[in-house]
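Researcher: Sequence of NADPH:quinone oxidoreductase family protein follows. Predict its structure.
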Amino acid sequence: MKAIVCRNFAPVEDLEYADLPDPVAKPGEVVVDVSASGVNFPDSLLVQGLYQMKPELPFIPGSEVAGIISEVGPEVPYLKVGMPVIGICQLGGYAQKVAIPCMQVMPIPASIPLDQAAALTTAHATAHHALKQRALLQEGETLLVTGAAGGTGLAAVQIGKLMGAKVIAVCSTDEKCEVAKQNGADITINYSKVDLKDTVKSHTNGKGVDVVYECVGGDTFHTCTRIMAWAGRLLVIGFAGGEIPKFPINLALVKGFSVVGVFWGSFVQHQPQDFMSNMKQLVTWLAEKKIEVVIDEAFKLEAAVGALDKLTSRQVMGKVVLIP
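Model: Prediction complete. C-alpha cells:
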C-alpha cells in the first residue's frame, strides 16, 4: 500500500510518500480500506515532535479515516467486511489501508459521504465534547468562538447553535465571517477591523460571554480573559496562532470564571462510553443534516505536505481531507 511516512521528527516537507506492506487484522481489529483521511493541526505538530505525545519512529500520521472494512480479525463481534465506517486510529490514517481496534470503529449509514465522515471526528467531536461535557453549555447562553471559520471553529458554531446558544463568531477576514454566518453564527466579528473586547462588550450589553471556545491562543486568548461573564467558562482548545499564552490568574479569581482544558484524545481514553454516545449523536445529526462537515479542499494522498501547509497557514475554511 501507499502511505505517508514520518521517519524523523522534522518539518512536514520531510514526510515521505512510500510503499509499505498492507496491514493485517490482529485479534480485535479490522482493516479499513481508506476512502478519505481527515487532516488536522495536531498532525503537523506530531511529525515535528512538538505535540504532547511522541510516537515511536517511523510512523504514519493521521488520526481519523472513513472507508470500507476489507478484513475482520478474530474476536470482532459485530463488524463485517463491506461495511462503511468511521475509524479513529491515533496514527496510520495517511494511508490506503489501516488496521484499527474494533472499539474505535463505527458503522455509518451509506447516505453519509465518506469524505464528510472522515472529517467528522476530530473537529466536530472535539467541539461536541467541549460544549457538552466541559462547558455544560445551556440553552440561551452566549458562546463566543475564535478561529470560527476553521474546522473545529465551524463545528463549534454549528453545535453551539444546535444546543440553543447565541453564537458570536470571531474571524480574521470578512470572507471567513461570512462562512461562519452561513453555518449558524448569530453575530460575526472581524477582529482585524474592530476592537474585539469593545465589540463583544457592546453585543452583550457589558455582561460578557458565558462560554468561549478558544482555538487561537496569543493575544486572542488574552482578550478573551477580559470579556468573560460571571461564572463563565473559557475553553482551551488549541493554539493555532502559535503562541501558548500565559495570563494573570487573578483575572479568573476576580471575574469568577473557569479556565477549562479540552483534550479530546484523553477524553476518548478516560470516558469511552461518553465518547461513543457523543459519536452516535454526531452521526445522527450528520445524517439528518443538522450539522455539516465543510470540506475546503480534498488533496491526493501524495500531496499531504501541501494539505498540511495550507492548514497551518490558516488558509482553510472548514476541513481538509486526503484521498488515497
